[in-house]
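quick one before i forget lol
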Amino acid sequence: MKVGGQAIIEGVLMIGRNVSIAVRDNKGAIVVEEISKKTPSSSKLFKIAFLRGIISLYYSLYYGIYALDRSAEISSGQKMKRSETIFSLLLAVALAVGLFLVLPVFLTNLLKFLKDNEFMFSLVEGLIRLGLFLLYVYVISLLKDVKRIFQYHGAEHMVIHAYEANEELTVENVRKHSTIHPRCGTSFMMIFLIISIVVFSLLGSLISLGLTGKVISRIVLIPVVIGFSYEFLRISARGSKFIKILASPGLILQKLTTATPNDSQIEVAIAALRKAIDEERNTNCKKDSEGPEFFG
């Protein structure tokens, strides 16, 4: 059974047989909750290549948003208003689309010498998009609160490594493992940005689009790029040495998005995974290679 997860506020979300979270509350206790019995593996669409990437990303975002909201409540001891969550989500989506899809097109359009070369326009635009993303990750990595989330991110990866190595989930065993994981959402984002450069450059070499057409095409083709990126992520996690070399930029980027956790944070990640794999009722479960690939 493959598992995956996400770092949340003072805790970790894990997806296995079910979807569970573990969060350290404001009194120092670990609160563990099962938030859903439904996972991507329950969808028949997950068996369809390229489409399963969109399905997996949907579930990751859906449960991730709920888990962030719930973890904020548990860690602070205060109830979150639904209207605040919806507004924050809409703002985040608008900023992401504006910063990483629309802005690179407008910045590249300022370079007049690229106006008549669609292929080079798309290539430069993609490099600008990649640069903006790397700058964004670097800037947020300097924030104190984000650093704690990155520590939980590292703890999540280390615990999954221990589980996949068929080791007992203890702090001592987990501590031996790396904070870098090949199925990480950070690697997916890097792969997404690189593949988007290829897709949009090829599109530019085939079709001449105006400024508005370029912006629309970037948004419309998001599902296509997601599909290709997810399949490459699956292959790179267990592929040849050459494929792993191609995927290495995402692993390198994880040096920024993960940090070495303390024992307290590892304990939280262990609690989340134990609940997600339903360890109490499945003490002899096999960590096989079948089933869907979740983001690590």
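fyi Residues 82-109 form the longest helix (28 residues).
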